[in-house]
Fold:
Amino acid sequence: MPRRHEDGLQRAAIELCTKKYRRRLLAWHTPNGGYRNRIEAARLQGLGVIAGVPDITLAMEGGRLGFIELKTPTGRLSTAQIIFREAVAGLGVPWVLCRSLTEVDEAVEEMLGRNSP
Structure:
């Protein structure tokens, strides 16, 4: 059940970004999840797949990136997600955990505000 709740939030978040912010950013999901056998997982890892990539990647005006991880109200980050968050934080790339569409909207506004001259 939690996965379905998160899927609905993700659909709404992508729709929000696509409609409200369409002239200021490009938003997408990188489908890293799902079952893979060991051979396929190794092949994808060799091609650059990284565990813990957030649900939404934002390419924003001004040449900046941002990441949004979506979780249910009680959802917890995996170890891979924590490692990814720390790695991008060290590069100065915004990474935000959101549990509602309101939080997504606020996070995007904040990230876009960082890009304003």
